[in-house]
Design brief:
alpha/beta, Spore Coat Polysaccharide Biosynthesis Protein SpsA, Chain A, Glyco_trans_2-like, about 20% strand, single chain, Glycosyltransf_2, Glycosyltransferase 2-like domain-containing protein, Nucleotide-diphossugar_trans
C-alpha cells in the first residue's frame, strides 16, 4: 500500500486542482503553498500535496500551517511522476495545475493561465496553457527569463522539437490543462526516469491538444545545486531514452505532423547530447557521438554542430586559462 495516510478536504466542485509533489522540501514547500494561497485568482481551487515519504518536517508543516490542504503521505518513495499521478487521481477540478515544491508562481499566474480556456462551464478546448518561466539560481542569485516555445526555425513542428531536443517546457510547474486530458492522453509514464514530461506532451499533441503560450506571467524555477541529470551516466540514459521515445512514436507522429526522417532525428539527438558531454568535459564520448552521427546525407547538420562545438570548447579552454591566471595572481599577491 503506497498511501500511509490521507487528509482529504472535500470541496464542492473546485474549478482548478493544484497538484504539488514534494520530497524533503519543507522550507520551499511552505513558500510554494504561500504563493498558491496568495494568487489573485478568485475561483474555487483545491490544493493537493503528495508527500513522497519525506523524512523532514513536511507532515508537521501541513498539519499546523496549511490545514486546508488535501495531504497524501506515501509510505515509500515512488518518484515525481508517480507522485503527480496520485495527485491527479485525487483531483476533482475542471483543470489541473502542477507546481513542484521548490518552484513558485507570479501572483496572477492562475488567472492568466486559465483565461485561455474561456468561461463556458463544461466546454474545455483541447489546450495546454504554458507560461513563461524564470530560472533562479539560488547559489549565484542569477535569474534568467525564458519563453517556453518550440524552436520552429530549427524544427519543423513542436513535436519535432520534442523528439530531437526534448521538452520546450522546462517544468510541469508552467502548465495548466483540462482534467479531461487524463482520458484523452493518459497520465505521466512512471516507467521513465527521464523525459516523462516530454513523453506526455507527445501524447497530448497526438490527441489533438494545442500548446498556447502565455508570456505575461511566470513560473519561477529554483535551481539549488548541480543538476544530477548531467552526470555522464544520466546523460547517456537520457540520450537512449530520447531515441527510444522517438522510435516508439515515430510512425504515429510522422503520419500527422511534419518531422524529419527517423535517421535524421537520431543524428539530431546524438549531436544535442554530444554538446552536453562536451560541456562536462567528456571529450571521448563527445567525439564518439560525432563520429557515429556523421553521414554524407546529414553533412550540413554534422559540420554545423561540430563547428559550434569547437567554438564552445575554445571558450571552455579560455575560461580555464583565465581562472588559472587569476588564481596565480592571487597566490603571488
Amino acid at each position: 500500500m503506497k498511501i500511509a495516510f490521507l487528509k482529504d478536504i472535500m470541496l464542492q466542485d473546485p474549478h482548478v486542482s493544484i497538484v504539488i509533489p514534494t520530497y524533503n522540501r519543507a522550507a520551499t514547500l511552505k513558500e510554494a503553498l504561500e504563493c498558491v494561497y496568495a494568487q489573485s485568482y478568485k475561483g474555487s481551487k483545491e490544493v493537493i500535496v503528495i508527500d513522497d515519504n519525506s523524512t523532514d518536517n513536511t507532515v508537521e508543516l501541513i498539519g499546523t500551517e496549511f490545514p486546508d490542504v488535501c495531504f497524501v503521505h506515501l509510505n515509500k518513495n515512488v518518484g515525481p511522476s508517480a507522485a503527480r499521478n496520485i495527485g491527479i487521481s485525487k483531483a476533482k477540478g475542471d483543470f489541473i495545475a502542477f507546481l513542484d515544491s521548490d518552484d513558485l508562481w507570479d501572483l496572477d499566474y492562475l488567472s492568466s493561465q486559465l483565461s485561455v480556456f474561456g468561461d463556458k462551464k463544461g466546454i474545455y478546448p483541447k489546450k495546454v496553457s504554458v507560461s513563461s518561466t524564470i530560472e533562479w539560481n539560488t547559489v549565484s542569485g542569477r535569474r534568467s527569463e525564458y519563453d517556453q516555445k518550440p524552436n520552429l526555425k530549427r524544427y519543423r513542428s513542436p513535436i519535432h522539437h520534442l523528439f530531437s531536443k526534448g521538452s520546450f517546457v522546462f517544468s510541469p510547474s508552467s502548465i495548466v490543462l483540462p482534467r479531461k486530458f487524463i482520458e484523452d492522453a493518459g497520465v505521466f509514464n512512471e516507467s521513465l526516469r527521464f523525459g516523462e514530461d516530454t513523453e506526455l506532451y507527445i501524447r497530448l499533441l497526438l490527441s489533438g491538444y494545442k500548446f498556447v503560450y502565455e508570456s505575461q506571467t511566470h513560473s519561477i524555477r529554483r535551481k539549488h545545486f548541480q543538476d544530477q541529470a548531467i552526470s555522464p551516466e544520466n546523460l547517456e540514459k537520457r540520450r537512449l531514452n530520447r531515441i527510444e521515445t522517438a522510435e516508439k512514436y515515430y510512425d504515429l507522429v510522422s503520419s500527422k505532423f511534419e518531422v524529419d526522417s527517423m535517421s535524421e532525428i537520431r543524428t539530431q539527438i546524438n549531436l544535442y547530447f554530444a554538446r552536453e558531454f562536451l560541456a562536462n568535459w567528456n571529450l571521448l564520448k563527445w567525439l564518439s557521438l560525432h563520429v557515429s552521427s556523421f553521414s554524407f546525407k546529414a553533412i550540413r547538420v554534422s559540420t554545423s554542430a561540430l563547428t559550434k562545438d569547437m567554438s564552445l570548447l575554445l571558450k571552455m579552454i579560455l575560461k580555464l586559462l583565465f581562472q588559472g591566471l587569476t588564481k596565480s595572481n592571487y597566490s603571488v599577491g
